[in-house]
Specification:
By secondary structure, the protein is α/β, with parallel strands linked by helices. It folds into 2 domains: 1-33 and 94-169, 3-Layer(aba) Sandwich (Rossmann fold), CATH 3.40.50.10490; 39-92, Helix hairpin bin (Helix Hairpins). It has helices at 11-23, 41-59, 67-84, 106-114, 143-208, and strands spanning 4-7, 27-29, 96-100, 119-123, 134-137. β3 (96-100), α4 (106-114) and β4 form a beta-alpha-beta unit. α1 packs parallel to α5 (143-208).
């Protein structure tokens, strides 16, 4: 149920990374890793706010701006969207990072390790597996292989979301039914005890009342 960040900025990984992240409701970086994207999240957040503001301005046809100014705003918006569009709704640092090509994404791995974020990565024969928490041996150059890895991670994310939703549903149901059953079970013995006490009190009261003496028989 946590946030997973897909990272792959090489040409053959760009499209599979974005598609898999979107399909599994996760986040991605597929253009260029900006230094401090994790360790300096405050600055990145300001850039994301700028991107949203530009979207609002351009959605309103940028009234009051000249054609040249609108073109400048559009270029700035496109540049920010390429770099930050995949994480604009992430809301904070991710809980895990999935990486294609650890050599190319060395800065991302370094920032993740500094923040103690687990890293899952495809490890080719020319990569160092030591900084990776969960290495996946494989080819990180072939487009078909990259697509396969991304699809598997996306399915794992969807499976995790489904399991969490199912677990939450079971817990909620148990919380709603258990108190009702407990109250019913507790109420029944209490009622029986009350009836028993009433019967005992009635018997005691009857025993305490004086019994009428038998009438004397007249002498014959």
């Amino acid at each position: 149920g946590g946030r997973v960040l897909f990272v792959g900025t090489k040409r053959q990984a760009s499209e599979p990374i974005a598609d898999s992240a979107k399909r599994s409701a996760q986040y991605f970086v597929n253009s260029r890793w900006l230094g401090g994207m994790l360790t300096n999240w405050k600055t990145i957040s300001h850039s994301i706010q700028r991107l949203r503001k530009l979207d609002e301005l351009l959605a309103g046809e940028a009234h009051g701006f000249t054609k040249k100014e609108r073109l400048t705003l559009q270029r700035e918006r496109d540049k920010l969207d390429r770099a930050l569009g995949g994480i604009r709704d992430m809301g904070g640092v991710p809980d895990m990072i999935f990486i294609i090509d650890t050599n190319k994404e060395a800065i991302a791995i370094e920032e993740a390790k500094r923040l103690h974020i687990p890293v899952v990565a495809v490890i080719d024969s020319n990569c160092d597996p030591r900084p990776i928490d969960f290495p996946i041996p494989g080819n990180d150059d072939a487009a078909r292989a990259i697509t396969l890895y991304c699809d598997l991670i996306a399915k794992a994310c969807l499976d995790g979301i489904g399991r969490q939703a199912g677990a939450m549903g079971v817990d909620i149901g148990a919380m709603e039914e258990a108190p009702m059953e407990t109250l019913e079970e507790e109420a029944m013995p209490s009622q029986s005890a009350a009836e028993t006490e009433t019967d005992v009190a009635s018997d005691a009261q009857a025993a305490a009342e004086p019994q009428p003496e038998p009438e004397a028989q007249p002498a014959a």
